[in-house]
Amino acid sequence: MSRIGSSNSHNGLTPLGQGGAVADGGTNLADVLERVLDKGVVIAGDIQVNLLDIELLTIKLRLVVASVDTARRMGIRWWESDPMLAGSDDQDDPKRLRERIHRLERELEQTSRAEHPET
Amino acid sequence: MTATALGWYVYCITAAGEVPALDGLAGVDRGCEVGCVTEGELSAVVSHVRLEEFGAEALKRNLEDLAWLKQTGLAHNAVLARALAADAVVPLRLCTIFADEDGVRDALRHGRDSLPAALTRVRGHAEWSVKLMADPRPLEAAARERGAVPIESSSRATGHAFFARKRLERVARDHVRAEIEQAVEETHARLQDHATAAVRLPPQDRRISGREGQMLLNGAYLVRRARAAEFAELATGLDAGHRETGLALNLSGPFAPYNFVGAESERE
Fold first, then answer.
1. Which residues of A touch B21 (CB under 8 A)?
2. Does B148 touch chain A (CB under 8 A)?
């Protein structure tokens, strides 16, 4: 059994990342998984898992790594639908809430007009 | 001893002769050291893997196993981190495996038209990840504070006061949200200015990121190595500026340029 030959020359470059105080060396699992599973060049190897399986796996992993569909659907404003950020009022269905807000605004205007007819 | 069937696992591609010293570096299959295969103008960073763990059948099983995936993903990335000592590295997707050395050489010959372009694009660069996390509590507090404009204590208008307060709170929340959105856009733009290329990845799920709060930005930046310290400084500065707003910036890296080598090579 052949040992794989070791490399040629060391070019003397030191690894990066020793300067940044906030850098964590790139070992965060989510950062790594979203890259090694989803990015990088695809070269067809000899040993392959059935492509259909890979896609299934990707979908499963995406559910774990990132709620991609949810994020896409919501675009950059996705956090608005998060009840924690959007406030306790918004825990219901957003459409119904919007309707409710419009209704309340109309009521508010009517009330305010009734109370301050001069404005 | 019985001979174990082995495959050839490829981690990344470099220009021929640019693979840095990898002595003693373990591959994804522990016990199998990392080395390189050179064919023409390209070198592949490779290691043996036992097919009983990395064969097609075993992979199907193992890839569904999150613990195995974690270990393999981190080991794969660790090899890339070392290979990044080379001036230009094109990372491959996890589990690119060949039956023998000839398979690796064939792949290198096959990629001689597309891979050099990718190498050129990332030469002298590394990838950095910047995330912006929002801590919802200070944000909510800020919204409430701004919404808490004292209502004239006119006793006759309790309903009016209630609606007015609700409306003010909503306006304040919208305002805070708009500010956050602007901060996110500006942060990305500033970082992008210092990068050769940038992409925004989908925000990571809290369950796997293990991070507190909501991820508002998950950016990947291809940064010239000579400007890495400058980039980190910029990130630190932006982080300090965001603290008050309740946004926390996290910088991680350097990564091999995973996010900046894909499109061309996948087109074929």
1. 6-7, 9-10
2. no
